[in-house]
Design a protein that fits this description.
There is one protein chain. The chain is an alpha/beta fold. The chain contains 13 helices and seven strands. The strands form two sheets. Strands 1-5-3-4-2 form a five-stranded mixed beta sheet. A two-stranded antiparallel ribbon has the order 6-7. Strand 3 and strand 4 form a beta hairpin. Helix 6 packs across helix 8. It starts with a helix and ends in a 28-residue tail after the last helix.
Length: 293
């Protein structure tokens, strides 16, 4: 038992130290190749497949363009070879885009020789700490990292909160380690990936609060489309309590379009920024980590 515990502890420490980018077996494998730095032509680069983080041409991006114009690329981007096409960008999409705007023909890069799952974990870890990350970006990034970690750790594909046998921790807990978020918060962000695009866009635009959106994610896609149409018609969104009611009715098959209209037009206390109507249930506020999944 002690040997098993110490072995598991060493694996966990190694995993935390490398943020899951390489396992111990990868480091000792004869096929392992160390990373290297080189200058790569811009036209040889390709975006990461299903990259969840968007490039916004805002003030922050303009400042990045100005910085690169004056000082060049200070930190190399991270890429990996893609057979027959050049290189896939893992980290540095904004710097790459800025270089294209400036007409720069090549860029310094660190080339990593890693597989799909390792690349996904590194991509998320490198981007999740951005100053401005949309809820949808974080949701899909967490899901991609969780799926990659489950495959890397050899876990069965079951409940996202299941404890990882040889690490003694939940996959979602390990996912949140890089951002300091609890496994429950990670689970709730991942729930947003079940929202239809129009409702998810409302969350990104702060037209719908996080907590009600998590509850709505349990509704069927058809019921979500009904809800989205009624929200546009009534210019209203459900409170947290109402969202929980809709979740239950959708799952039981008792929800109707008429009820949706009645619910959204009923008088209710004004919701706060966190989606909770003050005065309901004693005015208790909820945060993402406290919502019942």
């Amino acid at each position: 038992f002690l040997g098993t515990f110490l072995g598991s502890n060493r694996v966990l420490k190694s995993y935390q130290k490398t943020a899951g980018v390489r396992s111990v077996t990868k480091k000792t494998s004869p096929a392992y190749r160390a990373s290297k730095e080189e200058t790569i032509p811009i036209n040889k680069l390709h975006p990461f497949s299903n990259h969840p983080f968007h490039i916004r041409h805002d003030l922050e991006f303009s400042e990045l363009v100005d910085s690169i114009s004056e000082s060049g690329i200070i930190t190399p981007i991270i890429v990996r070879p893609k057979v027959g096409v050049g290189y896939e960008v893992i980290s540095g999409h904004r710097r790459w885009e800025a270089c294209k705007e400036l007409g720069i023909e090549s860029i310094p890069a660190r080339v990593e020789y890693i597989d799909d799952d390792e690349a996904t974990i590194l991509m998320v870890n490198s981007n999740i700490q951005r100053e401005h990350v949309l809820p949808s970006e974080k949701a899909f990034a967490y899901k991609m990292k969780m799926d990659a970690m489950k495959r890397t750790l050899g876990r069965p594909s079951k409940n996202v909160g299941q404890v990882v046998p040889h690490l003694g921790a939940r996959t979602t807990e390990l996912v949140g380690n890089t951002t300091g978020e609890s496994y429950k918060t990670v689970q709730r962000y991942i729930r947003l990936t079940y929202l239809i695009p129009d409702i998810l866009k409302m969350v990104d635009e702060a037209r719908m609060a996080f907590n009600p959106a998590v509850e709505i994610s349990y509704m069927t896609p058809e019921h979500q489309r009904w809800l989205q149409a009624e929200m546009e018609l009534c210019e209203a969104t459900p409170s947290l309590v109402q969202s929980r009611r809709l979740k239950e009715m959708s799952q039981s098959g008792t929800l109707t379009e008429h009820y949706l209209h009645t619910l959204l037009t009923e008088q209710k206390p004004a919701p706060t920024a966190d989606g909770f109507a003050v005065g309901t249930l004693g005015g208790i506020r909820f945060d993402p980590a406290a919502v019942t999944a």
